[in-house]
Amino acid sequence: MCTVDQLATASEGRDIGSINLVRWSIGLNNANMYKLGWIGLSVLFVGFAVPWTVSAASHPAAAASLTFEKDIRPILRTHCFDCHGSQNVRKGGLDLRLKRLMVKGGESGEAIVPGHSDQSYLVDRLKAGEMPPGEQKLSAKEIATIEAWIAAGAPNARQEPPDVGPGTLITEEDREYWAFHPIHRAKVPAFGQNDRVRTPIDALLLAAMQPKKLSFASDADRRTLIRRVSLDLVGLPPTPAEVDAFVADKAPDAYERLVDRLLASAHYGERWGRHWLDVAGYADSEGYDEQDRSRPEAYRYRDYVVNAFNKNTPFDQFVIEQLAGDELVPLPHKNLSPDAIEKLTATGFLRMAADGTATAGAHPVASNQVMADTIKIVSTSLLGLSVGCAQCHDHRYDPILQDDYYRMRAVFEPALNWKNWRVPEQRRVSLYSDADRAKVAALGAEINRAAAAYAEKEHKYITRAVDKELVAKFDPALAKQLKAAFDAPEAKRTADQKALLSRYPSVNITPGLLYQYDQPAADELKRDAAAIAAIRARVPAEEFLRVLSENPGETPATFLFNRGDYQQPLQEIAPGDLTVCVAEGQNGGIAKHDAHLPTTGRRLAYARRLMSGKHPLVGRVLVNRIWLHHFGRGIVGTPADFGRLGERPTNSELLDWLADEFASTGWNLKRLQRLIVTSTAYRQTSARTPERDAADPDNLLLSRMNVRRLDAEIIRDSVLAASGTAFGRMFGPPVPVREDAVGQIVVGVDTKVGANEPGAEVPIGGEEFRRSLYIEVRRSKPLAILRAFDAPVMETNCDRRIASTAAPQALMMMNSEFTLKEAGRFAARLKRDAGADPRKQVTLAFELTFCRPPDGPELEQSLAFLQMQNDELKTHAAPLKPQKHAKAARPAKKNRRPKYETMQRSTAAEPSLQPLTDFCQTLLSSNEFLYVD
Question: Which end of the chain has a smaller Cβ tally under 10 Å, C or N?
Answer without folding.
Answer: N
